[in-house]
């Protein structure tokens, strides 16, 4: 990558993982030469050498996507085995970033499944510079919503994740589960797994999706299995008697 590419805010690195992308039950790309491209500062996206893509599955759809850093992108519909994902593939054959010209990007959500080696990928590629640490603690943590204590524990697990506020995971017996209502919301995290959510009802007011838990977290996050965390951005958190300032984050 050139200094000019860095000035554009584009970061590109090779990955050593085998990556496969599926649609219609068939792999449309199978490569051990994927590239990680940071199009946004939050997480990378996989790009694939065009030689490792089943090009007979790509059909130009005439759409154009423009990016200040990447240049003009040509959109393709992906069709295979009776399944179709319109606009799910993108190429930048004349990109100002030379390394991108021979690569193809697939839309994460449009494709059926993604595998890193033989493990299914959740949400997005893992950032090799992203870290999650879960530590047992004896800090006293109390959570308030509208002035009502909804959780209180001196046995929290603290989760420290790159770029995000510390999260306090509390045992269910230390949470007012009578105030929590199960939500239909679920999310996926490539570092922690799949989460289920609860809303908190205080009187007549329902605060939607304030709390979550990972019933079966990924192996690297097993210490938070079954524990409950709250959005510090939306509740009042007291640690050792000191009210914490609500953090600024994408989840605020």
SSE map:
Blueprint: H1 3-7, E1 11-14, E2 19-23, E3 26-31, E4 35-38, E5 45-49, E6 58-67, E7 71-80, E8 83-91, E9 103-106, E10 113-116, E11 119-120, E12 132-136, E13 141-145, E14 148-153, E15 157-161, E16 167-169, E17 180-189, E18 193-202, E19 205-213, E20 228-230, E21 236-239, E22 242-243
Provide tags for this entry.
2 domains, Metal Binding Protein, Guanine Nucleotide Exchange Factor, Chain A, 1 helix, mainly beta, 252 residues, 50% strand
CATH superfamily of the largest domain: Domain of unknown function (DUF427)
> What is the CATH fold-level name of the largest domain?
Metal Binding Protein, Guanine Nucleotide Exchange Factor, Chain A
Count of distinct structural domains: 2
Largest sheet: 7 strands, antiparallel
Give the class-level CATH name of the largest domain. Mainly Beta
What gap, in angstroms, lies between the N and C termini? 35 Å
| Alpha plus pi helix count | 1
Shape: elongated
CATH architecture classification name of the largest domain? Beta Complex
Overall residue-averaged pLDDT value? 94
Main β-sheet, spatial strand arrangement: 1-4-5-9-8-7-6
Structural class: mainly beta
Uncertain residue ranges: none
* Amount of helix: under 10%
Radius of gyration: 22 Å
Care to count the β-strands?
Answer: 22
Strand content: over 45%
Order of helices and strands: HEEEEEEEEEEEEEEEEEEEEEE
């Amino acid at each position: 990558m050139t200094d000019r590419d860095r000035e554009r805010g584009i970061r590109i690195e090779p990955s050593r993982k085998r990556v496969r992308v599926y649609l219609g039950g068939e792999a449309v790309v199978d490569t051990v030469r994927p590239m990680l491209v940071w199009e946004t500062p939050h997480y990378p996206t996989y790009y694939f050498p065009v030689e490792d893509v089943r090009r007979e599955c790509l059909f130009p759809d005439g759409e154009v996507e423009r990016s200040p850093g990447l240049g003009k992108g040509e959109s393709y519909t992906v069709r295979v085995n009776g399944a179709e994902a319109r606009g799910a593939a993108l190429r930048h054959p004349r990109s100002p970033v030379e390394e991108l010209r021979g690569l193809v990007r697939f839309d994460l959500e449009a494709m059926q499944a993604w595998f890193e080696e033989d493990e299914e990928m959740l949400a997005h590629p893992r950032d090799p510079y992203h870290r999650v640490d879960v530590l047992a603690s004896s800090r006293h943590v109390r959570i308030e919503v509208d002035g009502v204590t909804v959780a209180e524990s001196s046995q929290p697990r603290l989760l420290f994740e790159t770029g995000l506020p510390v999260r306090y995971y509390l045992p269910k017996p230390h949470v007012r589960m009578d105030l929590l209502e199960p939500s239909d919301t679920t999310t996926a995290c490539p570092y922690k797994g799949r989460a289920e959510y609860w809303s908190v009802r205080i009187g007549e007011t329902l605060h939607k999706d304030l709390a979550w838990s990972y019933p079966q977290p990924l192996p690297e996050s097993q210490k938070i299995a079954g524990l409950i965390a709250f959005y510090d951005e939306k509740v009042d958190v007291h640690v050792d008697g000191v009210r914490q300032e609500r953090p600024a984050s994408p989840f605020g």
